[in-house]
Amino acid sequence: MSGVSTATAEELAEATAPDRFWNRQRRLGAALVIIGLIAAVIFGALAESATARFTISEDAEGAALSINGQLGAILFGVVTIAAGGALLAGVAKRWQTVLLSLGIVTFVFSFLCWQVAGKFLPLVDTASGSLELALPLILGALAGVLCERSGVVNVAIEGQFLMGAFGAALVGTLATSVWAGLISAVVGGVIIASLLAVLAIRFLVDQVVVGIVLNLLALGITGFLYERLMQPDALKYNSPPRLPEWRIPGLADIPVVGPVLFETNLLVWLALALVLVIHFGLTRTRWGLRTRAVGEHPTAADTVGIRVRGLRYTNVLLGGVVAGAGGAYFTLVSTGAFNKNMTAGAGFIALAALIFGRWTPFGALGAALFFGFAQKLANYLSAVGSPVPNQFLNMLPYLATIIAVAGLVGRVRAPAADGVPYVKS
Amino acid sequence: MTTEAPEKQPAKKEEQEESFVKLFLHNLWSANTVVVTILSIFLALLIGAVLIVISDSEVLATFSYFTSRPSDALTASWDLISQAYADLFKGAIFDPAAVQAWFDGSGDWKTALNPLSETLTYAAPLVFTGLSVAIAFRGGLFNIGGQGQAVIGCVTAGVAGFAIGLPAGLHLVVALAAGLIGGALWGFLPGLLKARTGAHEVITTIMLNYTATLFLGWLILQNGVQDPDRTDAVSKTIESTAGLPALPQPLRVHLGIVLAVLVTAGVAWLVNRSSFGFELRAVGVNPPAARTAGMSVGRTYIKLMVVAGALAGLGGAVQVLGTADRLTGQVAGNIGFDGLLVALLGRNKPWGTLFAAILYGGLRAGGNLMQVDVGVSLELVTVLQALIVIFIAAPALVKAIFQLRDARTARLGTSMAKGW
Amino acid sequence: MRGITKRFGDLVANDHIDITVEPGEVHALLGENGAGKSTLMNQLYGLLQPDEGEILVDGEKKVFRSPRDAIAAGIGMVHQHFMLVPVFTVAENIALGAEEVRGGPLGWLDRRRSRRDVLETSKRYGLPVDPDALVENLPVGAQQRVEIVKALTRDVDLLILDEPTAVLTPQETDELLAVMRSLAETGKSIVFITHKLREVKAIADRITVIRRGRTVGTTSPDTSTDELAALMVGRDVSLEVTKTPADPGREVLEVSGLIVEDDRGVRVVDGVDLAVRSGEVLGIAGVQGNGQTELVEAIMGLRESRAGSVVLEGQNLAGRTTKQVLRAGVGYVPEDRSLDGVVKDFTVAENLVLDLYDRAPFGNRFSLNPKAIDESARERVDQFDIRTSSPHSTVGTLSGGNQQKVVVAREMSRPLKLLIASQPTRGVDVGSIEFIHNQIIHERDVGTAVLVVSSELDEVVGLADRIAVMYRGRILAVVSPDMPREEIGLLMAGVVTQEAEDTE
Question: Which run of H or of E encompasses C276?
C-alpha cells in the first residue's frame, strides 16, 4: 500500500548505517563544531574591527544594540563551538534541540557581526521584511500541510500562487475592490486545487506529475492572458488596489514587535491565525484525527467508515483556498500589479518550508520565517555591497531542505500514505 | 489505473465478412494509446481555441450582440482560430506558399525548409532532457531535476566553449563532454542521497533545480565569465570551434538533432538490451525483488541518476553549443521541465520520447509564427503542452469525454515513484 | 447472505454462496488460502459490493455501500492485516470513525471520554489494552486486542475475525478462543475465518466450508478432521509428503551466535546456532514474527547481522552482498513471493533469469543475450510445469502457484549447495503445493542442504528431517518430526519440556 520504493531505500539506509558512536547527536555536534570554527576563525578574521549596530528605532541614529564586529563574530562562533562540543560530549536528549538551536542562532549572529561591522542593520525593517517575505511561504506551506496530511502530494503550490495572484489582479482591478481581488485569488487557488483533486483522486494520476503539469498550465494561462489583456491595457486590467495596512493602537507602540506584528495588513494576521487554527484542528478535532488517519493509513480509515476520498477532496480544496490567498500577496501586498511568472519559484520554497517544517503547521511557520529571513538578509547584503553573493544566501532554503530530507539534521517523515492514491481493493 | 482485459474478438465464421469494417471502426474507437494521444492533442487545441477567443477583445465585442447576429461572432471566432492554428502548422512543418515559391523558382529551398529547421532546432535539447526523465522513470525514479542538470550542463559546456582553445572538432567533443559530466555530477548528488539516506529524489531534485539556476545567475557576473563589453548578465561567446555545425543561414538546425537520434538509439539499447537496463527495469518496478535477486538497489539508483543527469547535461550543452552560443540567466529556458512533459507524452519509451520532443518542438516553432502573425501569445503553446499531458496522463478522462470503449492503453507511470 | 457472487475479471471469487449466522453462535468459515473466505466477509463488511445476491440482517434486506453501513447494522470486523494507524495511540485508533466530540460543529475531540470508553470495554471483556500506548510499539498480540476492543466499542452484534490466529502462539490462540466463547455467551455472533482445522473443532458451533468460491457444506464440529480436510481441499489429500529417509552428509551451512536486529533496532535474532547438512531438510518451525524472517535475511546478506558467523562450506558469508551469497551456491525462495520473489511486470523469461542475467549464457556485464534467455525459459516452463500461455507473458498474469513455480524453477536451475525456502507454499493451490514439495525433496535427494522455514507446522513436519523450533529469536530445541505435535506446539509457545531437552 505505502510507497514501496521509498521503504526499500530506507531499509537500505538502515543496512548501511554507520556504527553506534556516530549517532545523530554526535553528528550534529560535529557539524556545529565545524561551522563554529568557520565562524570564529574565518568570519572573525574577515570582520572589520568596527562597531556593528543593530538599530531598534526606525531611524539609523536612534537606540541600537552595538558590538564590535570582530569581537562579536569570534564570540558567537565560540558559543557555537561550545554548543557543538556539548552535543559531542553526549548530553541528555532533552537538551539536544535547545543546543542545536543555540548553535545555529549564534552562528547566524556571528555571520551578522561580520557583515554589519562598521555599518548598521535596522532590526524592525529586517523583522517586518522577513515576515512579509515569509507571508506567502507560510500560506503556501499551510496549503501543503492540508493536502499532504490527508495523503495528497501538493507540488502545485506554485501554480496556485500564480492563479491566485492573477485572479486578484484582474478582478481586483475590474471591481476596483481589494476584497473582491482577495476573493478571486482564493477562487484562482481553488481552480488549480480542484484540477489537482480530480486528477489525483478520481483519475489516479501520479500526484507529482499532476502538480508539475498544473504549474506549467497555470504559468501558461496566466502568461497568455497577461500578454493578451493586461499588457496592452494595464490600467483597465492590471492595476488592483493594495491591501491597506492597519494599525492596532497601543500594541503597535511596543518596540520592534509592535510595528512588525501590529501595524501590518490583514493577510499577515490571517496567516498567523491559520497556523493556530490548523494546528489545533489537526491535533484536537474530529476532522484532524480523520485527516491524519486518511494520510497515514487510508484503508484503516475506510474500515471504520470514513469517506477517504471525500475527506481528501475537502482538504485539497481547503488547501487551494489557503494557497490562493497566498497568491494574493504577490499582487495585492507586494508589487501591486501582475507580471508573467512573478512568483518565480516561491511555491517551491513554500514546498521546501512544508518539508523542512516536517509537515506540521508550526514547523512550516518556523521554516517559512527562516527562509524569509534568509531572503531579506540576501537583499540587505546586496544593498550594502557585501562580498557574500546574495545568490548563495538565496540557495539557503533549498540546501537546508536537502540537508533535512537527507536526515543529516534529524529525520523528516512524510505521512505514510502521502502521494498514494486510495483505490478500494 | 485499471486496465481491463481486451474483449475477445468474435470469431464466428458467419460474422467475419461483414465485420471487417466493423472491426476496423471498433479498433479505431477503442481507447488505445495512439487514439488517446491524438484525442488528447485535439482536446488541447480545442481548449486553446476557447482561450484565443475569450482573450481577443475585438472578437469578444462581436459576442455582445450574439443573440441578434450570431454569424458575426462565429465568423470572427472561426477566422481568428483558423488563422492561428494555420500559423501553428506553417511555422512548424511547411508553408505551402513558400514551397510553391521554391518550385516556381521565385523562392529558395531555405525558406521552404525553415519551419522544419526551426522545429528540429527546438526539439534537439528536448530529446535529451526527455530521455533523461524517461530513463529515470523506467528505473522508478522521478527526475524532476532535468532543469537543474541541464543548467549545469549549459554552464560547463559553455565555459569549456569559451575558456579553452582547441582545434575544431576536438573542442566540440570536449565541450559536449563537459556538459555531459556537469549534468552527471548534478544527477549524482540526488542519486547518492537516495541510495544512502533514502532522501526522496523528487524533493532533492526540485531543490537542486533552483540551486543550479542561482549558481548560474552568480557565475555569469564573475570576471572571466561575463562578457567584458557588457554590463548585464551575459557571458562571453563560445569559440566557433566549439559550436555544433549547422546548415547555412538563416536555417538554424544543427548537428544536435542528429546527435539526439543517435543518443535515442543508445538509450533504447541501454534500457532494453543491456544488463544495466535489466537491473534498472527490475529496480523500477519491484525494488525488493531486485534486491532479493542480488542486485544492488542503491547502486542502481546512483548509476541511473548519473546517466539521467548526463543526458540532461548533454541537452544543456546542445542548447548552448547549437543555438544560444553564450550563457545568459535564461539560457536553459524551460527545457528541463519541458523534458518532463515530453517523457510523459512519449510514455517513457526512448523512441516515443524522440517523437514527442519533435511534436513539442513543432508547437514551439509554430507558436513563434502565431505570435508574430496574429498576435496570439507564445504562452498559448505552454498551455497546449500542459493540457496534452494532462489528458495523456488521465486516459480515463479522455475515454469518458469521447465514450471510448476500454482497451489496453499503455499505462502511464507504472514505474513512477509513489509518494515522497 | 444469499446467493452472493463476486467476480474479479475472469476470476469468480464467490459463486452463489449462502451462509446464515445465528445469534450467539461461533460460526467457522473454513477454507484453503484463496478459497474466497475473506472476499465473502469483505462484502458483508461493505468493503466490496457483491455482483449478485443479497445480505439480510435480522430478516431485513440491506445494501452495504461502505463499512459505514455495515457498522450501522451492527457488524464489526477484525482484519487479517490489522487496520490500525501505527502512529496513533490505542485510544485514538479506537475512537477513529466514532469519535466522542464536544463543541458541536467544531468537533472538538473529547479525549478523556474516549479513554474512559476504551478502559471500560477492555475491562468488561477481559481484554487488557493501554489506551495511551502508540500502536506501532505494541506486539501483534496486543494489536489484535486493540482491534477487537475497537469493534466491541461500536456495539456489534456480529463480529468477523479474519484469520485471527495466524500471528498468535498456541497459548495466545487459546486465550483468544476463550474470549470468543465468552462473547458468544453474551449473545453476540462470531464469524471465525480460518484454515486451521484444530481451532475450528475447538470453538465452532457450526462450520461452513468454502472451496474455490463455493460453499461445499455446512457441518457440525463433530465431523472428523480428515473429513473436514477432504471437504476443504476437495479430495482425500495426504498431508504427508512421501519421501525416503534422509542420508545426511557433511555440514554445509553452519550458523553460530548470530544476532540480528530489525528495522527498529530490536534484537529479533538472539544468538542462533544451527547447522544444515547436505542431503537433509532442516525445518524451522515457529509462529510468524519470532525472528525467522530476519534470520534468513541475514544469511542471504539482505540484512546486516550484529554478531555471529554464517559459514557455507568453510566460506564465511557474513558481510557479503546478496549477489555474492547467491553466487556461492545458495538458492533462495523468499517468503513474500509477490514482493520479493518475482517482478510482476516482467515476463516469465525475464523472471527466470532475475539473478543470472549478467552471467553466461544469458548475458555479460554489459549486454543481455535474449536468445539464450528465451531458450532456457522454454525448457524451464516445461520442466517445472509452469502454466503460462507463453514465456513472454508477464508473471503478474499467472496464478499464485505458477508464480511460485517460476521462483522455484529459477532457484533450482543452477547447481546449489544450499537451498533456503521460506514459506514455500503460502497462498499456493494444492496441486502446486505437492509439486513444490516434491521438488524440494528432490533437491535434498541430490545432496543439497535444504533449510525450510514455515509457520505451518504441518508443512514443516511433512518436509523436515529435523525440526528447529524458533521462539523469540532463539532456537529452543531441535527435535525429530516424529515428536507429538502438541509438544512441538508447546515449544513454539516457548515452553521447554523435559522430553524436548532430551532429544537435543
Answer: strand C267-277
Max distance between CA atoms of chain C, in angstroms, equals: 75
Query: Contacts of residue B411 in chain A, CB cutoff 8 Å?
Result: none
CATH of domain C2-233: 3.40.50.300
Boundaries of domain holding A166 = 124-405
Q: Which of A118, A143, A168 corresponds to the end of one domain? A: A118
Residue A417 belongs to a domain = no
Domain count, chain A: 2
The closest of C432, C433, C411, C406 to C421, measured between CA atoms, is C411
Q: Considering CB atoms only, which of C340, C367, C368 is closest to B292?
A: C340
Any CB–CB contact under 8 A between A302 and chain C? Answer: yes
Of chain A residues 4-23, which have a CB less than 8 A from chain C?
A: 11, 14-15
Contact C368 B273 (CB under 8 A): yes
Domains C2-233 and C251-503 share a fold: yes
Would you identify the CATH topology of the domain C251-503?
Answer: Rossmann fold (3.40.50)
Same domain, A197 and A259: yes
Contact check, Cβ <8 Å, B288/C340: yes
Give the CATH number, domain containing residue A321: 1.10.3470
What span, in angstroms and rounded, lies between the C-alpha atoms of C183 and C194?
A: 18
Question: Which of these three, A92, A118, A144, is where a domain ends?
Answer: A118
Q: Which spans in C73-223 are helix H?
A: 90-95, 111-124, 140-152, 170-185, 197-203
Parse chain C into domains and list their residue ranges: 2-233, 251-503
Contact C362, C354 (CB under 8 A): no
Per-residue pLDDT of chain C (504 residues; tens, 9 = 90+): 777 888 776 677 888 888 888 888 999 988 876 678 888 888 889 888 888 888 888 888 888 888 889 998 999 999 888 899 999 999 999 999 888 888 777 788 888 999 999 999 999 888 889 999 999 888 888 898 999 999 988 888 999 998 888 777 777 888 888 888 988 998 899 999 887 777 888 888 999 988 878 888 888 888 777 777 777 766 545 556 778 888 888 999 999 999 998 877 778 899 999 999 999 999 998 877 788 999 999 999 999 888 899 999 988 888 889 999 999 999 999 988 888 999 999 999 999 999 889 888 898 888 999 999 999 999 999 999 898 888 999 998 888 888 999 999 999 988 899 999 999 988 777 778 888 999 999 999 999 999 999 877 788 888 999 999 998 889 999 999 888 877 887 787 777 755 544 444
C52 vs C7: CA distance, rounded Å: 9
